[in-house]
Amino acid sequence: xxxxxxxxxxxxxxxxxxxxxxxxxxxxxxxxxxxxxxxxxxxxxxxxxxxxxxxxxxxxxxxxxxxxxxxxxxxxxxxxxxxxxxxxxxxxxxxxxxxxxxxxxxxxxxxxxxxxxxxxxxxxxxxxxxxxxxxxxxxxxxxxxxxxxxxxxxxxxxxxxxxxxxxxxxxxxxxxxxxxxxxxxxxxxxxxxxxxxxxxxxxxxxxxxxxxxxxxxxxxxxxxxxxxxxxxxxxxxxxxxxxxxxxxxxxxxxxxxxxxxxxxxxxxxxxxxxxxxxxxxxxxxxxxxxxxxxxx
Length: 296
What we know:
By secondary structure, the chain is of the alpha/beta class.
């Protein structure tokens, strides 16, 4: 008999010296599965249906706002970093690194009295999850890295037109934000997955109304640039790892996923034909099945 998956949240905890906002789905006595979002993405970027599907598979699914996004602590005093040196091959002065964001995730586990969790990260979230596995391996039961990369400098970079979009000025106002989000959706989805514009518009409005804070995205991007390559450190991992990547990813080219799987001993690699830098609803059944089976 079907039992509804209880929703818990939102809640606020102190973790690694800052405030994090999180919520959760499922039974708290089940194995925890921590979802780490990507660049500028709030916890609601993890669709409730996906969280519920994973909870039905027997996990306590936890999603949270990274620092500088959503309802978690903002680092306004740090100001806006100058990203131009990084684009020219130089160093960037970042107020924090991906390792600090990984420590935030560990702090959240501490606040929830969890000794470890299955850890799933997408895009920048995958980089944070990798950093968590490198620096806090005892806290990671299994690792799932989606549309992410090792950060090695010899890997292909985003397509030039996508890089220009990434560094364009932030949208001013709700309608501009909606239009910008729709443009991103069409660029990122990939040729094999048509964009559901109604769904994308609804998500854009929800993100804007909950917390529109583009300044934080700039600082998170600086953290990515300043954190360097994880390739060599990943070679020492002994954590069961699943890598998922779209073959048509224009933002983090598929070579980043392949490099991640090749760096981590015994990692499994699943490449999806026609998929860009996204997880559209058409991918959810297979993705949930793969994640649940890997975590078990």
